[in-house]
Amino acid sequence: SSMINQNKKECDELMDVMFAMEQEFNERESDVRHEFQSVRDEIKNRNLEEKHALRIQLEGTVEDLWKQFEEARTNYTQATADRKTAFENLKAKDEKSAEEIEQQMRKLQRLSDQISYLKAKMASTAKESDERNKTLKEERESILVHFQELKTQMGKLRDADRARLTTLTVQSNNSVKELERIKSKGQHILKISEMCRKLEAEEEKVLPFYPSTLTAEEEDDVNAAMAEPSVEKLADMLHDYTNLDNFWKRYNKVLLENLAMDKEKGKLVAENQRLKSILKQYLDGVSVNDEIMSKANPLFVVNSNSNIPMSVPVMDSRVAKPTITTIDATQAVKHII
Fold it and tell me: Is residue 262 pLDDT above 90, yes or no?
């Protein structure tokens, strides 16, 4: 309660101070405003007085100048009266002479126009004749040049037709030869196919093409991708060879089997080399001669230590049997596609 009273008391004091400051500010503002108004009125009155004095002075100066102008005009009129009369007479004569001169000039202009017209007509006639002769000469030369060009062009066309006919004949012969080669190649392929048919297994004869490993959704995606128009030329060409899918299936199957056989052959060759090495070590161990003793020999034992690491026998259980890796052709084709 005491803090609230203290706060209220301080707020009242602050309000009193603010009221006092506002009163003082208003009084100062009123004094400054009165002082500004008095200064402005004083300046305005002084300007009006100066303006009135200048107006009086200018009016006097203008009256003096007007009097001087009237005196000068009167003197000039009196001094130039005779000259003005003479000027009017000379002006009338000049107008009459100017009219006569204008009539004569019109006559001269008409004569000059007639002469110019006749000269222009004569020059135009001569120019037209020259241009007509020049045009006829140019047309004659142009016709001769065009005739020569047509003659040359006909010769070139004749030579080009002869060359095209020769090329067409050569290409036709080449096409016939190429068709014969393709025919021979097809017959050769059919003979090889018949030979391979005899070597096929019973399963391959019954099911020559392995079933697709794709799901129904994947088949739909592949068909949709094949149905979409392609931008690249190579993709368009692939649509022309869709009928060879079964051929490529058999080809890829044979290729994968060859790869698997090659891999198996490599493993067997490595195993054969290892066995040959072990057999050679064994034969070297049971033989005694200078050449054998000069090399590492398993029979040369000193303090129960041999100078050659002993190989574990092949039949020992610690020797890992080689694993043969087989690849299912359908899985491989699935990853390739």
Answer: yes
Copy the structure tokens of residue 150: 């047509």
How many Cα atoms occupy the beta-carbon half-sphere of 146 within 13 Å? 6
pLDDT at 256: 86
Phi first, then psi: give them for residue 316, nearest 5 degrees. -65, 150
Tokens representing residue 221 in the block: 């995606």
Task: Summarize the confidence of residues 269-288 as an average pLDDT.
Answer: 82
Rg over CA atoms, the chain = 65
CB 206 within 8 A of CB 246: no
Contacts 24+ apart (CB under 8 A), 272-281: 275/314, 278/311, 278/314, 281/308, 281/311
Q: Which stretches of the chain are DSSP H helices? A: 2-79, 81-199, 202-206, 216-227, 233-239, 245-286, 290-294, 329-336
Cβ neighbours for 40, distance < 8 A, ≥ 6 positions apart: none
Q: How far is CA 100 from CA 22, 103, 104, 114, in A?
A: 98, 5, 6, 22
DSSP 76-135: HHHHTHHHHHHHHHHHHHHHHHHHHHHHHHHHHHHHHHHHHHHHHHHHHHHHHHHHHHHH
Is pTM beyond 0.85? Reply is no
